[in-house]
Structure formats: C-alpha cells, structure tokens
Specification:
The protein is mainly β. It has a single domain (13-98), classed as Thrombin, subunit H, CATH 2.40.10.220. The protein is 0% helix and 53% strand. It has a 6-stranded antiparallel β-barrel with strand order 2-3-4-7-6-5. Strand 2 (18-23) and strand 3 (29-37) form a beta hairpin. It is globular. It starts with 12 loop residues before the first strand and ends in a 5-residue tail after the last strand.
C-alpha cells in the first residue's frame, strides 16, 4: 500500500515549540505545544477543547520568529487518544491579512 500524498495550498513544516495562545475578548494566556506550521495555519495540542470559529491570538516566541503574534481562527479540534496532558489537537487558519 502506498501512502497518499497530501494536497495542500501551502506546505507544512515541523514546528515543535511551546506557543502562547490568547483569547480575543479576555486576552487570557494559555500554553500549547505546536506540531506543524504552514504559511496559512498551524496544528497544535492543548489540554482543553476549543470550538470551531473561535478566534485566538497565536504567539510564537523563538529565535526564528521573534515574537510574532498572529490572529487565527479554529477550523477543527479533535480529542486525542492516549495522551497525558495535551488532550486536544487543534487546527487554526491564520487571518488572511496577516499572511
């Protein structure tokens, strides 16, 4: 059996770092673990569920990206099996005016 290659608008790159998320209305900070990153979005893990269409600010602090804070919208959220701390996988799409 051959793996089917993914067809995406922009290539994903492995990006395993701790990131900071903030809610738009309250600006409460949460920590997440990023898994991959593309020009248009990101996949990360969280200890709690986010809902479709939720808006968050994603802050990536590292030497490559400085302190970029990017508005994003949740496009999917799935419960992860067999995980200890990060129980949910979340996919976000970056705001179009930020890419």
């Amino acid at each position: 059996m051959h793996a089917k290659p993914e067809v995406r608008a922009s290539e994903r790159f492995s990006h395993e770092h701790v990131i900071t998320l903030e809610d738009d209305p309250t600006l409460t900070q949460y920590y997440a673990e990023s898994c991959n990153l593309s020009e248009r979005g990101m996949y990360f893990r969280l200890p709690f569920e986010l809902y479709l269409e939720d808006h968050v600010l994603v802050r990536i602090d590292d030497y490559k990206f400085s302190q970029n804070q990017v508005p994003a919208k949740v496009v999917w959220c799935k419960k992860l099996e067999d995980t200890s701390f990060f129980s949910y996988g979340v996919g976000v799409e970056f705001a179009k005016d930020c890419v």
